[in-house]
Amino acid sequence: MDVTPQDAPLLDVRQLSKSFQVGRDRVQALRGVDFTLRTGQILGLAGESGSGKSTLARILAGSSAASGGQFLLEGQDVSAGKLHDGRWFKQRVQMVFQDPTSSLNPRRTVAQTLEVPLRTLGLSAAARQVRIAELLDLVELGGEYASVFPSALSGGQKQRVAVARALAIQPRLIVLDEPTSALDVSVQAKIIQLLLRLRNQLDLSYLFISHDLSLMRNVADETAIMYLGRIVEQAPTAELFARPRHPYTRMLLSAIPVVSAQEAQLRPAHIAVIGEIPSATHLPSGCTFHTRCPYVTLACKRAEPELEVIGPGHAARCIRVHELERSGVMS
Ligand code: ADP
Ligand code: MG
């Protein structure tokens, strides 16, 4: 049965894959990624560098084509790319990148940067000026910033401009790829506060990508953990942090500094970070995490586990998940 666009999730990603040919090697950056994102939701996507997060972001924002699979926006299949240059697509998905310095054109003033998306709406010059003032206000920059060039702005101010540009034509979904990773910690918190306020005020949805799990914990409603091009665990964020079930998630959580005794108590048993993420050109056999997993068995090296539902909204890709839970290793 087809779902009507009203019932469809805002974003429905199905078996998305992407590979790159690099010389003789094939880089498998994404290998069958599935998830849905509802209107108003902040879905977090975490994982070490090289796990495929930015590749996924670029495909969803329409700037790169998938090698396989599809994704639907409000029930419409947009993966063929035919809508990517169109207004319909841009009014649904916009992107904010990690580095605001390279994402803003240094030769354009803030107003000129914000004008680019507004032109696609066919607004008059006067209406564009009004909208630019509104956008600056939304991101808490005064009107005096309109005539300024990026070189005169701080990192945080540049990222505010990048957010304003993404908001210009009122998208429903913003893909945020490490939006605060290039900023000082004190500035990070302010940008996060801004993004959360805008989500509520404008009924936005975010795909929030970060390698920083402590940030994810405070931001995302639901969190997916990626490893070598696949989601290995996904759950409502509070559940994922309270009851991480995949050894990789446990390893990532163990690497977060603990700030209080209470937090230390809540935290599951420590797993040391072993080795580094293998290359996506030479993937390990079976479960791709087996080369770093403290619980590896022979069976883990043979076949890649399916993503299995293990609780309400909670799924993990590990053949030992039940056994480890019963044995108490996971608590
Ligand atoms: P993340 O954002 O999680 O760090 P990326 O999506 O940037 O991960 O990269 C995933 C994998 O794909 C890495 O192995 C990376 O080297 C590779 N990759 C990404 N973009 C390209 C490209 N344009 N050409 C070749 N390999 C790429
Ligand atoms: Mg990245």
Radius of gyration from CA coordinates: 21 Å
N/C terminus separation = 41 Å
The coarse overall form would be globular
The helix-strand sequence is EEEHEEHEHHHHEHEHEEHHHEEH
Query: SS-based structural class?
Result: alpha/beta
Mean pLDDT: 92
Number of strands: 12
How can the largest sheet be summarized?
A: 8 strands, mixed
Strand proportion, as a percent range, falls in 15-25%
Helix fraction, binned, reads: 25-40%
Number of helices: 12
Ions, cofactors, ligands: which are bound? adenosine-5'-diphosphate, magnesium ion
Spatially, the strands of the biggest sheet line up as: 6-7-8-3-9-10-12-11
| Poorly predicted segments | none
List keywords for this structure.
single chain; 331 residues; alpha/beta; four-stranded antiparallel sheet; 31% helix; binds adenosine-5'-diphosphate; binds magnesium ion
Quick summary of this structure?
This protein is of the alpha/beta class and 331 residues long.
Give a structural overview.
It contains twelve helices and twelve strands. The protein is of the alpha/beta class and 331 residues long. The strands form two sheets. It has an eight-stranded mixed beta sheet, sandwiched between helices. It has a four-stranded antiparallel beta sheet with strand order 2-1-4-5, with helices on one face. A hairpin with a 2-residue loop joins strand 9 (222-227) and strand 10 (230-236). The mean pLDDT is 92. The structure holds adenosine-5'-diphosphate and magnesium ion. Magnesium ion binds at residues 53-54.
